[in-house]
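Q: I'm building a small set of examples for a reading group on sequence design. Run inverse folding on the following structure and report the sequence directly after it, with nothing in between.
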């Protein structure tokens, strides 16, 4: 469970929706660092204009009006000027946060800055701590947690990270692995050919079964299932079918083909998820 949580708020009800949802993830006595970012405004080199002072006062008053979302939670408030994605990452380091949390609207609208294309994506790529995203009201308790795996050792690290959460909430773990039916085409001798199948996307087989049986032997409440198709679509379909209360997955922070195949999956799920999403950075960022 998380103890120091940085919560990015932009003043909208959609962003504030993340606050009660954090009850699912927060440890006892958790501290919530509420962050409101003011985009930089042109100003003279002397005293700041009255408009800037008004914005700062308004931001501080806004955060002061937000109470602890549950008894026992401690609240700290921060107002920082700058580019939201940069300020969020800097504030996470400043507060030694072990989780960054953001709320955003559904695909029919976007908050002023907390949306996948402008802030969530850079934060996901740059964060060294997990990122929690939600655009809907969360369940009152965690019963089912869906964890997509991709066949790599890096993806298995997510299981170690969610284990305390599963133990605390007594949730059921659902594992899945998606094998894509179509891979990107690459140039070959002046023409186009299918890219070679990377090892992590080999045919479905005993890998997931071995992982699931090993966890079950250790006392985990776990089921598992392979799927075939588009990774983002299948993850969201399985989440709906199993009525998952949370999707927990990793992002690799890699480049090239691995980035195309893996990093884009977490970002795609973040754009389209209709339920809370917890994304862990796994693997080295290069």
């Amino acid at each position: 469970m998380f103890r120091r949580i940085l919560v990015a708020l932009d003043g909208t009800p959609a962003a504030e929706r993340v606050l009660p949802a954090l009850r699912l993830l927060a440890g006892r006595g958790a501290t919530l660092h509420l962050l409101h970012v003011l985009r930089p405004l042109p100003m003279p080199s002397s005293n700041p204009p009255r408009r800037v002072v008004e914005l700062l006062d308004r931001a501080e008053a806004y955060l002061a009006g937000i109470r602890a979302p549950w008894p026992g939670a401690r609240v700290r408030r921060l107002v920082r000027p700058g580019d939201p994605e940069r300020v969020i990452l800097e504030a996470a380091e400043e507060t030694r946060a072990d989780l960054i949390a953001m709320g955003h609207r559904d695909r029919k609208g976007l908050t002023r800055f907390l949306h996948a294309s402008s802030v969530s994506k850079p934060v996901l790529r740059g964060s060294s701590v997990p990122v929690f995203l939600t655009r809907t009201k969360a369940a009152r308790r965690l019963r089912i947690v869906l964890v997509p795996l991709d066949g790599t050792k890096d993806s298995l690290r997510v299981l170690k990270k969610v284990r305390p959460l599963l133990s605390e909430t007594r949730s059921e773990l659902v594992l899945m692995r998606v094998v894509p039916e179509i891979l990107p085409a690459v140039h070959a001798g002046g023409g186009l050919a299918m890219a070679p199948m990377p090892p992590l996307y080999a045919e479905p087989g005993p890998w997931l079964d071995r992982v699931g049986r090993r966890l079950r032997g250790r006392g985990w409440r776990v089921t598992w299932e392979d799927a075939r198709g588009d990774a983002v679509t299948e993850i969201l379909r399985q989440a709906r079918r199993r009525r998952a209360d949370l999707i927990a997955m990793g992002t690799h922070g890699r480049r090239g083909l691995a980035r195309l195949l893996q990093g884009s999956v977490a970002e795609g799920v973040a754009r389209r998820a209709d339920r809370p999403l917890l994304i862990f950075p796994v693997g080295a960022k290069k």
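The longest strand covers residues 26-38.
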